[in-house]
Protein 1
Amino acid sequence: MEAMATDEVALRLRDVTKEYPGGVHALRGVSVDIGVGDQVAVVGPSGSGKTTMLTVLGTLERPSAGVVQVAGRDVAGSSDVELAGLRAHEIGFVFQGFHLQDTMSAVDNVANGMLYTGEPLRKRREAAREALERVGLGHRLTHRPPQLSGGERQRVAIARAIAKRPVIILADEPTGNLDSSSGQEVISLLHELAAEGATLVLITHDQGIAEGFSRRIQMRDGEIVGDERQ
């Protein structure tokens, strides 16, 4: 992950709305720019729209209206295949649930996460081993998820997100299933990885975690109601 000029925009939303059946307005005209290399915490109560904003930024969902730009690309007209390729190469996801295969080793869980990059298995396993060593799990390469602690499983999930060297890391409540000590280790690791040049956007309900970020976006009722930098 190479650092880029800080005045470049990694993620951009312009007047983005997202409506679900039944008249649910998850996003109401959201506009925001997130620069390359920014580390941003998105906070807000349950139902504020923060997870929906993250899934729209990550192209996992399409907006009902508005402009979405990811890594300099306007994705509105992109096909599902093109969006899958964008996610495969440019975006790393970390979720609250680890989403690991219990029957696979840590290496193969990470390598499997790069399946859609088109790289051969040998190269994917090599990248997986490097990523696991990077997150401090070089001694757990052959362990399966049931043999790992919660903190270790989340580290495997982070290794899966960074193994392809994405320019954007999107994390949705990554400490939600962890104790406070493991959670702080995970946040510190994400900060460290982002400091190498990736853009980090993290959703959290924990104000203590949010205070450790240089930029904090506050959401409520599908709108951005605060945006501050330290």
Note: The radius of gyration is 17 Å.
Protein 2
Amino acid sequence: MKPFQMLLRKALVCLALIPATSQAITLSVNPVTQTVDPGTPVQVDLVIAGLGNHTAPSLGAFDLDLSFNAGVLAFTGLTFGGALGDELAGEAFVSFSTGAGTVNLFEVSLLEPSATGCIFCLAPYLEDLQTDSFVLATLDFTALGIGTSALGISINALSDGYGDALTADTQTGRVTVAAAATVPAPSTLLLMMAGLLGFCYRSRIAA
């Protein structure tokens, strides 16, 4: 892990020790449940809800783990949502890492939460970018063996635009990988009966 990333993580954990706000916030995956065929791509959004709608509290940083069944799903990549700033423009720092059945997502915004109290601050501000619900990241998987995988969320740290800790409820998702339904072929007996009926019908016409 890079020294700069380690420093950001330590700072975020320290901020998490500050008393949290009482805002009712939830973290969930969307869709909550889905059923797919083996070998097909699976995409889920990690969504936060219950923040301010272009007002405080905004989300300034998060460090989360998403768990899944590695025998059912294979992680293939992710895209951060951009509501904490544009990484390429130097407005946010993002990273992710993978383990056995786990994806860690880390993002910290370098933007000011709002123009209030800022003298030399420049837009955009977090409150301009964020509504009360938005996508933190979109994760991509491939369906492997038949089975069911829960998608669980664990919070390592979560803070608002001012560095104050946030608390949130988490909701588990589920992906079911099932074999494609097949149409059963007619039995041999039914084929014989159909052939016999056809023969009798032609015989009656000929008579």
Note: The chain has one domain: 3-206.
Protein 3
Amino acid sequence: MNEIIPQELVLIQQAILYCGVDEAGAGPLCGDVVAAAVILDPENPIAGLNDSKKLTEKKREALFPEIKEKALAFCIARASVEEIDEINILHARMLAMTRAVNGLTMAPQHALIDGNRLPLNLCCDATPIVKGDALVAAIAAASVLAKVQRDHEMVKLDALYPQYGLAQHKGYPTKAHIAALNEHGPVDIYRKTFGPVKALL
């Protein structure tokens, strides 16, 4: 990830403090949607950053503490299962990203948001970047923090609800997960408005 995209270059040239923002967990049937915002330190680069989906689990786990240690600031935030059911997953994703940006201990002047939509009520100006997690290092860092944090939470939920196999599929609607859900029925960690869950209620 050495190529600097035009939007990022403008911010760098103008010496604007910016953060990268991404989320994880839109597709799973259970658990919160998790977002992260990261302000990287240009004096302390992190090697190997990329879209979290393109990294191995081992690489993501190695980057997770390194990003936290080297970033100028980071914030991991969420929208709950209840909020997902109340306002739908799209708006919940946006809400989680707003909370991540506004929760940074160092206020950014601009936010580069992965995707083609902008969250509401951000504390700064923002630009959406399609496939930003593969183009902007700060967004890639945010994608890693969000993904690993959510995966860790799924492993903890697996210990409470071992019948669903959450540690393996992380809540995504795999064939094994659907079979387990059909056998045991949903508990309160499940998103009631999602089709496979809704069908069982």
Note: The two ends are 45 Å apart (CA to CA).
